[in-house]
Design brief:
Length: 100
């Protein structure tokens, strides 16, 4: 269930404080965690990461924030790939079951 409550966000402001990101993503629902991807050597943000919400509805609502500005950057948000892969597998299983 954690994957269905998590979204992938990119084009994030790299120099913003975490509280700015929590405020931005909090517009969609209660944020449990933000995991920013950082450079191994410099430890600076690469401008993308994962946002985990308390509920699935929060994650779904956050998709509506895609394309809106946060600290001067147009943030883009999409479902995590694991969620898309799970949906594709379920559709393939349903199609296979209907062909039997």
């Amino acid at each position: 269930e954690r994957d269905s409550r998590t979204v992938f966000a990119f084009n994030l402001p790299t120099r913003s404080k975490e509280e700015v990101l929590y405020d931005f993503f909090g517009k969609a629902g209660k944020v449990l965690d933000i995991r920013l991807i950082t450079d191994r050597i410099t430890r600076k943000s690469k401008g993308f990461g994962y946002v985990e919400y308390e509920t699935i509805d929060g994650a779904q609502n956050s998709l509506r924030l895609s394309g809106t500005p946060c600290a001067g950057h147009t943030v883009m948000i999409q479902q995590t790939q694991s969620e898309k892969n799970r949906a594709a597998a379920a559709a393939a299983a349903a199609a296979a079951a209907s062909n039997i």
